[in-house]
Predict the 3D structure of the following.
Amino acid sequence: MAKELIRLSGCNVAFDGDIILDNINLCVKDKEFLTLLGPSGCGKTTTLRIIGGFLKPDSGDVYFDKVRINDVPPHKRLVNTIFQKYALFTHLNVFENVAFGLRLARTQNKKIDKHEISRRVFEMLDLVSLKGFEKRDVASLSGGQQQRVAIARALVNKPKVLLLDEPLGALDMRLRKDMQNELKQIRQAMGITFIYVTHDQEEALAMSDSVVVMEGGVIQQVGTPEDIYNEPSNAFVADFIGESNIVDGIMRSDGVVEIFGRKFKCLDGGFDPLEPVDVVIRPEDIDIVSSGKGKLTGTVTGVTFRGVMYDIIVDFHGFKWLIQTTDLCPVGTEIGIQIDPDGIHIMKKSRFSGMYGDYSSYSAEYDDIGDAELEHETDDKDSITRNA
């Protein structure tokens, strides 16, 4: 089992009376790829700055290898940071950009000779697939190549932790995908800890060993990508991580939940009898059947073709669900649905209850659609506005 490397204990931060971080407790393991995920303003970058030493918490402690480091400045921490704006030195070539930290260390009486600097720079350039680029002007490089230079410069000093604050935000979608894979490979090759900040849910799920979901300066859930997706702790997490239908339910007994007056089997238990709950059903976990065979019956109000499947909006008792299916169901069709027990997840009611999960506005975006129309697939799910 990996040992603890970094711990934040009871960290609080406020700016001008506004709470930015509220009692943050977080453990980061050695050689872990941990992602801080959440919407803008949730506190993820502030958390990263505390770890890097750029900001001191108003209260609480920061530990590195079980040693309190609240007062240790950034340059004395075994941590390096890559920001969204790479801050490369435009007057230096690729080699000198990567070598900068080593040359700076040499001026501070650290024993790094010229041959060692050259060896380590070329080693890093090879690692980030920039072998042969050492004499290039950084301004002549593509965005992805500049990103690699920034990574090489951050890693050449051999930090124990690399902090990455939205480092792929300036790249196009295809290049982001490529760099996600490269970052995972680099982390494995270096054997160090990566702490990554993003608002991109798919990016977090694809890259991370652990995901920390934040909202309003509070950690809402910590877990593996699978746990976060399959077992969200509340309606905010369920909605933020992928698409979710979130409806009101009543627990009739362990393993039985009532939705819209119909009883469904589920795998959850431990709730009080007749306890009101939030019920999460992912769009891909719903099976469409004929209206006479369904546990619930609804009317299709919108259809969007997504290439490999259709996004179908269905009205059940005034609440609109999203269903993802390979079967085309034209607008106006009455359908029934079946849901297997493992496709239903039960959550305690929270302050987020009732705020998410209704796709009324989603279908309104496509109110001109009668038959399914071809839509370009998009990863920007934030562009789809939902009703609270």
Notes: DSSP finds nine helices and 20 strands in the chain. The first strand starts at residue 4 and ends at 15. The chain has two domains: 4-227, 231-375.
